[in-house]
Amino acid sequence: MGCSGSKTAESPKSKPEGQQENKGDENKEAGVYITEDEAIQYIVNELATTEERAKKIVAQVNHNDDGKISNEELVEMWAKCKERRAELKSEFEEIDKDKSGYITTDEAVQVFSKRFTGLPEASVKAIIKRYDSDGSGKLRYDEFIYFYGNMIVKRETIVKEFEKLDPDNKGQLPASDLERILVDVCVIDDYMAKSLVEDCDMNKDGLINRQEFEKLLNDMFE
């Protein structure tokens, strides 16, 4: 998701120069990794964002806090972002009719409410306002793109939290557990989370299975 003039980042598919292969069983289990610093630089270049913001994204991805980030995880996450890059650029420019390089937060809400249809508009608005760094009521292109990239991270974080609360791999969680995940990750009110979870609990048994969970994610983030 780079902007014009940003440095071209090395694809995370390529192992950084000088980095050694993991050996033996560790390599079989862990695969190839890049360091947090390399991941941060990649994100800075791809999203044309600040190092501080990139660090926050990397922190959300690196759940075991070992200073290393899986190439596979980064590639998958940014592949999803890149699929939407051209569309987002076009939409931003369409809204930015005076070519000022800014759009209002209300205009951004209109765009993202259509993309993240399962999230209430009030929630989208609250999240977007967090990315208006100077409180001007306007978003620059990099802020606009950063918001979208971070929403992709939120989806991945929700999946990780689901798996963390299902250590025995039963494939289901109590509805209340999923509601708490949505409140914490998506910055939404309790009643909004409850409504979203109730809508995806197709058999109304108070448990959210994998199929229902996938439907919720698709409704919210696709």
What's the pLDDT, averaged over the residues?
76
Secondary-structure-based class equals: mainly alpha
Largest sheet: 2 strands, antiparallel
Beta-strand proportion: 5-15%
- The topology string of helices and strands comes to HEHHEHEHHEHEHHEH
Produce the secondary structure layout.
Elements: H1 24-30, E1 33-35, H2 36-47, H3 51-61, E2 68-70, H4 71-95, E3 102-104, H5 105-115, H6 121-129, E4 138-140, H7 141-164, E5 172-174, H8 175-186, H9 190-200, E6 207-209, H10 210-221
Antiparallel strand pairs: 1-2, 3-4, 5-6
Helix pairs in contact: 2-3, 3-7, 4-7, 5-6, 7-8, 8-9, 9-10
In brief:
This is EF-hand domain-containing protein. By secondary structure, the chain is mainly alpha-helical.
Question: Mind explaining what this structure looks like?
Answer:
With 222 residues, this protein is mainly alpha-helical. It contains ten helices and six strands; from the N terminus they run αβααβαβααβαβααβα. It has helices at 24-30, 36-47, 51-61, 71-95, 105-115, 121-129, 141-164, 175-186, 190-200, 210-221; strands at 33-35, 68-70, 102-104, 138-140, 172-174, 207-209. It is globular and about 50 Å long. It comes from Paralvinella palmiformis. Residues 83-118, 119-154 form the EF-hand domain.
Key phrases:
mainly alpha, disordered N terminus, two-stranded antiparallel ribbon, 222 residues, Recoverin, domain 1
